[in-house]
Amino acid sequence: KGYVAGTKCKVSELLLREAPLRICGVSGSADDARRALAKLVAADKRFDSLCAPHSTPEVSPLSGVDDDSWAKALARVKSNAFGRRGPDGTWTLSLFRYISTCNHSCNPNAAISIFRSRASLYTLRDIDAGEEVSICYDSRFLWLPLRIRQMDMRRVWGFRCGCSRCGEEEESQSQARPTEEPNQSEWDTYFDDSGQVVLDPYRSAGGTDSHLLQQTSDRQPSPRSIATPMDLYDELVDSGLPLTHWQVHTAREAAVVHMLHCEPLDFDLDVLLEHAECAAELAPNHPHWYKWQIKLEQVVGQNAAAVEEHKVWRARVADLRALVVPDLLLWNTEDACADVRNATSSTLASGD
C-alpha cells in the first residue's frame, strides 16, 4: 500500500485531512495501549485493508474473536497506529483509513500532524508527479543514526528500512576503514538502544522524573558526575560535538522538558532557543519543529518584558518566526475546518 503524487505538489501543500476511525487513550506502556486499541478493532471489518505483517500467534482475549483474527488485529495496530505519549504518561493511539497506509522513509517528503484527533498530511518539500509520498514513522529517526533506526524499525514495525537515506549510510559505512566505529561514541553509555537518555539513577530536586528519561539498574556507574539532563548536555557540548548531533539534540530535549516541568523559575531561554533552532535545521517544516516553536512562543509570551530588553533574544526569536509557514502552524495547532473529509485528495493516487 501507500500513495504516489498524482500531480506535482508544492512544499507545504495539504494532501489529505481525516478523522480517525478509532482512537483510544491508555495509562501504562505503549504495548498496553496497542492491546487496548486492538480489542476495539479486532472485529471491525473496516480495518481489514490495513497491512498486518509478521503477526505472531497469540491466544485471543476476546470472545467471538479467534486467535488468528486477534493476532492480525494486534499486528495491524502495531504497524499502522499513530501514538503519542502525554506528559502524564497516557498513551493516545489513533488508526486512520487512509493516512495509516502511508509508507515510511527516514528522509520523508511529507509529514503528519495530529491535533485534537484530526490528522493532516502535508508536504515537506516539492514532490514530483509519480513520486511516492512518504512519512517518517518516528520523528526521532530524522536525526538518529542508522544503527538505532534499523533496530527500532525491526523491533516496533517489524521491517528493515530500505529508504535512500539508509542505503546511502549503509554504503558509506561499508567503505569505512575496519578500525572505525561508525555512528558510535564514548557517550553511548548515556543512551539506551532506542536513543533515549539514560542516567544512573536520575533524581530531580524539584519534581518527578521526565517521561523522556529511562532509568536502569544494569549499567556501570558513570565516571563523570552527571546527575541531570543538563549536566549531560553540557558535557556533550564541551566535548566538541555539533549542536545538531543526535546525542546533543536528545540530551538537550530532555533538559528542556525537565526545566519546563520542574524548574520554571530557573529556566534557560538560551537553551530553548538553541533547541528550536536545531529542530528547524534537523526537521524543517516538520511537526517536531513546530512543537518546539509553539513552546518557545509560549515561554516568550510569558517573559515578554525580559525578551524585549535582550537584543540577541529578540533577533533569534525573529529569525525563527521568519521560518514559520502560517498554514503549517495552523495544522499543527488547530483543526483547520470542521468538515473533515475522509477521502484522498486529487493530488494523491493509491500505490501498490
Question: Main attributes?
Answer:
12 strands, four-stranded mixed beta sheet, three-stranded antiparallel beta sheet, 14% strand, 352 residues, alpha+beta
Sequence of strands across the biggest β-sheet: 6-9-1-12
* Number of DSSP-assigned strands: 12
Helix fraction bin = 25-40%
Overall shape: it is globular
Order of helices and strands: EEEHHEEEEEEHHEEHHHHHHHE
How large is the count of helical segments?
11
Give the C-alpha Rg: 21 Å
Largest sheet: 4 strands, mixed
Low-confidence stretches: 179-183, 201-223, 335-348
Q: Can you walk through the features of this model?
A:
The protein is of the alpha+beta class. The chain has helices at residues 30-41, 67-80, 146-157, 164-174, 229-238, 246-262, 269-282, 287-302, 304-309, 311-321, 326-331; strands spanning 3-5, 14-18, 22-27, 82-85, 90-95, 103-104, 110-115, 118-123, 132-135, 198-199, 214-215, 348-350. The chain has a 4-stranded mixed beta sheet with strand order 6-9-1-12, with no helix packed on it. It has a 3-stranded antiparallel beta sheet with strand order 2-8-7, with no helix packed on it. The chain has a 3-stranded antiparallel beta sheet with strand order 3-5-4, with helices on one face. Helix 1 (30-41) packs across helix 2. The longest helix is centred in the C-terminal third of the chain and has 17 residues, at 246-262. The protein starts with a strand and ends with a strand.
Topology:
Blueprint: E1 3-5, E2 14-18, E3 22-27, H1 30-41, H2 67-80, E4 82-85, E5 90-95, E6 103-104, E7 110-115, E8 118-123, E9 132-135, H3 146-157, H4 164-174, E10 198-199, E11 214-215, H5 229-238, H6 246-262, H7 269-282, H8 287-302, H9 304-309, H10 311-321, H11 326-331, E12 348-350
Parallel strand pairs: 6-9, 10-11
Antiparallel strand pairs: 1-9, 1-12, 2-8, 3-5, 4-5, 7-8
Helix pairs in contact: 1-2, 5-6, 6-7, 7-8, 7-10
